[in-house]
Design brief:
Elements: H1 5-16, H2 24-31, H3 35-43, E1 52-55, E2 59-62, H4 71-76, H5 80-85, E3 88-92, H6 98-105, E4 113-117, E5 139-148, H7 156-170, E6 176-179, E7 183-186, E8 189-200, E9 205-214, H8 220-223, H9 242-263, H10 269-274, E10 282-286, E11 291-299, E12 305-309, E13 312-316, E14 320-323
Parallel strand pairs: 3-4
Antiparallel strand pairs: 1-2, 4-5, 5-9, 6-7, 7-8, 8-9, 10-11, 10-14, 11-12, 12-13
Length: 328
């Protein structure tokens, strides 16, 4: 047999990605394995969420074509300035989590290294939540960036959220808003999430891994496993090109991190406030053993969430915020 099992699965998926019928003989010849081995590998596509249609005399095809990520297409969509900072783009078929993978290899790479994947077996969101990551449907990537001093990173998650929403707007997504601290919503449903992990000292060099997940075309069966209302780009009017969207997101993120290094959060405040989903809304903020009820009043200069309540205005740096719906 030629190649490791994982490599053979990847080659099989790439051959079937066009959505056309391919005979077992053709697939076996191209992969250097027997027809029986082809059939065995086809069965292994089901755990990835890929449905295979097999017809006697015609062969095998996927239920629908796949728009697989392509490194060259992603790089071609970036301008020269971004390419100078993106010193490495690692495209994986499958990983546990792009952020976990990047964390394990961070010492081998300089600032600006990126990991993208078609599939995450253990995608992670904020507050320990699982990020549902079906194969070839959405975007999952992480970027490594090094700053001088973790003490200078206040508000970084808000700046990254602005970078993400501006990138999605640039590919045609409309009516997107931001929910503090860094969720991108469409019609009150989560479209994209951000996870930022920091390691290092307050004054010395620190390592930041920015993880981003964007729902492009979430399969309904996978969407049913998500524990909160969700949306995907198919609803927003955006151009549905995963590679082009990846280029736009990476470009916006890199340029925003450069701006944040120089100027901090203040240069992102107007963009954030213009898209604030919570301003003027009745909100509940959940803490570990308590909650705060009030009206959202935006963010302050440090990116803290302002909640007006009976005893004044509270400035919050943490907490899980939700909009209170009035009983009808």
């Amino acid at each position: 047999m030629n190649g490791e099992p994982g490599e053979i699965i990847e080659r099989l998926v790439r051959l079937l990605a066009d959505g056309r019928f391919h005979s077992g003989e053709e697939l076996g010849h191209l992969m250097g394995i027997s027809r029986a081995a082809v059939w065995k590998r086809l069965q292994q596509l089901e755990p990835l969420g890929l449905s295979v249609h097999s017809v006697r005399g015609r062969g095998h095809r996927l239920a629908k074509p796949l728009d697989l990520l392509n490194r060259q297409r992603i790089l071609a969509g970036m301008d020269a300035r971004v390419l100078d900072r993106c010193v490495g783009l690692d495209l994986k078929f499958a990983v546990d989590s792009t952020s976990a993978h990047l964390g394990r290899v961070a010492g081998e790479h300089p600032s600006g290294h990126i990991c993208l994947t078609e599939y995450q077996t253990a995608g992670r969101g904020r507050r320990g939540r699982r990020w549902i990551s079906p194969f070839g449907s959405n975007l999952y990537f992480s970027l490594l960036w090094r700053f001088q001093g973790a003490g200078q990173l206040g508000g970084l998650s808000l700046a990254v959220a602005v970078a993400v929403i501006e990138a999605l707007e640039s590919v045609g997504a409309a009516r997107l808003v931001l929910k503090w601290p860094n969720d991108v919503l469409y019609e009150d449903r989560k479209l994209a999430g951000i996870l930022i992990e920091v390691a290092g000292e307050a004054t010395g060099e620190c390592q930041v891994i920015v993880g981003i997940g964007v729902n492009i075309g979430m399969p309904l069966l996978d969407g049913n496993r998500i524990d909160q209302p969700w949306a995907d780009l198919t609803e927003t009017g955006a151009r549905l090109d995963r590679n082009g969207t990846a280029s736009a997101l990476i470009g916006s993120l890199v340029q925003s991190l450069e701006r944040f290094e120089r100027y901090g959060l203040p240069c992102f405040l107007n963009a954030w406030r213009a898209r604030d989903a919570l301003y003027g809304q009745p909100v509940t903020v959940q803490f570990t053993d308590s909650e705060l009820v009030g009206i959202g009043r935006g963010i302050d200069e440090a990116g803290q969430f302002l909640v007006e309540h009976e005893e004044g205005t509270e400035r919050l740096s943490y907490g899980e915020v939700s909009i209170r719906r009035w009983a009808s």
